[in-house]
Amino acid sequence: MIEVAIPHAFISLSKDSHEPGRLFKKYVAGYVRHSYPGYQLKRIEKMTAIIERRQ
Question: Which domain of life is it from (predicted)?
């Protein structure tokens, strides 16, 4: 597993949403798919995404 810093901009983009936590997670998952091809989001800890290689 790899730890990746999450861009702080995702907080301000999602905070005014009806479900900010859910939108934040979608942003992070999309960021991982785009920036780390072949990896998937496992979990979020504070402002760090824990990712692992897809099988």
Answer: Bacteria
Alpha helices for 1-55 (secondary structure H): 9-14, 20-35
pTM above 0.85, yes or no: yes
Separation CA 52–CA 49 (nearest Å): 10
Q: Which residues on adjacent β-strands are paired with residue 52?
A: 40
Length of the chain in residues, anyone?
A: 55
Distance CA 35, CA 52 (A): 13
Q: What is the chain's pLDDT, residue by residue, as a tens digit (55 residues)? A: 999 999 999 999 999 999 999 999 999 999 999 999 999 999 999 999 999 999 8
